[in-house]
Known about the structure:
By secondary structure, the protein is α/β, with parallel strands linked by helices. Helices cover 43% and strands 15% of the residues. It has a single domain, classed as NAD(P)-binding Rossmann-like Domain (Rossmann fold, 3-Layer(aba) Sandwich), CATH 3.40.50. It is built from eight helices and nine strands. The strands form two sheets. A seven-stranded parallel sheet has the order 3-2-1-4-5-6-9, with helices on both faces. Strands 7-8 form a two-stranded parallel ribbon. Strand 2 (31-36), helix 2 and strand 3 form a beta-alpha-beta unit. Helix 3 (76-90) packs parallel to helix 4. The protein starts with 6 loop residues before the first strand and ends in a 9-residue tail after the last strand. The model has no long low-confidence stretch (mean pLDDT 94).
Amino acid sequence: MELEGKVAIVTGASAGIGRAYALALAGAGATVVAAARSLGRAEDGVAPRGTLAEVVRAAQGLPGRVYAQVCDIEREADIARLMEQAAANFGRIDVLVNNAAIYPHYDTLGLTPDEWDLNMRVNVRGPYLAIRHAAPQMMRQGAGSIVNLTSLSALPTPRGSAAHEGLMVYGVSKAAVNRLTTYMAEELKPHGIAVNGLSPGGVLTDTWARVDPAAFAAAKETATGKPATPEVMGPALIYLAQQTAQTMTGQIVHTDQFRKSWP
């Protein structure tokens, strides 16, 4: 197993891409702490999709184990507790996947200051605080891999494209994540820690279907969207999870180009 004996933390792991990443890491042999805002409750004895309880159940039988922990990425105390308990319970933190994010659509000139601040707290401050609280343990180990989830929306896009409409603040937040990635890669390089950004591209998640049903339907119809499964989403993440500052760091890469233009 590529990650046997390693400990990984995935934020926003209860559904969609985060769920796929947690299960892929466990499939590669890692001990995974899957974090989200709530554990979720079983209905008629069965944990429904979209809950941490379901992710833990889905991981049964995999080489690694998945453990659930509640963490609201807006609360620094929750983030600190997530990292402290992972290090205390398992003795190390080898991989941090900053996946938790929100994906709202707004009228470009109509969003409120509170909406702007919410997006920046979740999508930018959250990953920064997760790095801030995980890095000391990785520094003590002299190695680690941090993967920040980003988006093509961070790049300049023509008006009228799916990556443009209603996504100004999301794009700005992911552009900030890109710079956070490259900055922290240099900051943590002397300690052997890799920091890379991964853009997953179009993934057919429940969140996309809810937020932008027209674009979701089009992506599904034209097969430009990928299913949020460990088999499809996992390989690129597993590769990045194995990196150190000596092998690959400070890169912003795209899932669809894995084994093509990178590594």
